[in-house]
Amino acid sequence: MPIKDKPRPPRFSLFNNILLILAGVFLFVSFILPVFSRPQVPGVPYSLFIHQVQEGDVARVQVGQNQIRFQLKSDEEMGGEQVGQVFSTTPIFDLGLPNLLEEKGVEFAATPPPKNGWVSNALGWIIPPLIFVGIFQFFVRRGGGGGAQGMLSIGKSKAKVYVEGESAKTTFADVAGVDEAKAELVEVVDFLKTPGRYTQIGARIPKGVLLVGPPGTGKTLLAKAVAGEAGVPFFSISGSEFVEMFVGVGSSRVRDLFEQAKKEAPCIVFIDELDAIGKSRSSSGFYGGNDEREQTLNQLLSEMDGFAAEDATVIVLAATNRPEILDPALLRPGRFDRQVLVDRPALSGREAILKIHAQTVKLGEDVDLNAIATRTPGFAGADLANLVNEAALLAARNQRESVAQADFAEAIERVVAGLEKKSRVLNDKEKKIVAYHEVGHAIVGSLMPGSGRVEKISIVSRGMSALGYTLQLPTEDRFLSDETELRGQIATLLGGRSAEEVVFNSITTGASNDLQRATDLAEQMVTTFGMSKILGPLAYEQGSRAMFLNEGVPNPRRMMSEATAEAIDREVKDIVETAHQQALDTLNHNRDILETITMQLLETEALEGKPLHQLLEQVQAAPAI
Ligand code: ADP
Ligand code: MG
Ligand code: ZN
Question: Model pTM?
Answer without folding.
Answer: 0.56
